[in-house]
Model the fold of this input.
Amino acid sequence: MSLDSNTPEKLDLARELREQLVEWARAAAPNEACGLLLGRVEAPRVDVRDVRAGRNVARDPAQAFELHPEDHLALTLEAERAGLAIVGAWHSHPRGPARPSATDRASAWDGWLHAIVGRDTRGEFELRVWRVRGEAWTETARSTAASERGARETSDRNDQ
Done:
């Protein structure tokens, strides 16, 4: 199943995957890092199962990102072999906020998740995930990973 305009804005993205994206962004700074999000759309959620980094081949990698086409193809094939789909892309803003820039808005793939690692008001790296439909960008409602969710639901049932 792929993302479409009817896919709700619920996102499962495990803590270790979020931390991996931040680490890749930190390591690439002052350049932008980039890659793809692999997962499944399991209505009403998008379940990101894995994240992958790729080579940034932008002319000025400190100001922009462009995922190497060979990496895009290789990651797409890897996802298919694993029974997953590409559900989005990620990149970093090493000196700016984790919000879509004008360049991001102009080049975004409609319907995809767009994860951005940027700086918060304290200058620390943070991850925010967005979805674009036409001109409208919406931040997704992040939930816990399925394994974390299962543990929480079990605990909630035991409290009743």
About this structure: The chain has one domain: 10-159. Residues 10-159 form a domain with the Cytidine Deaminase; domain 2 fold (CATH 3.40.140.10).
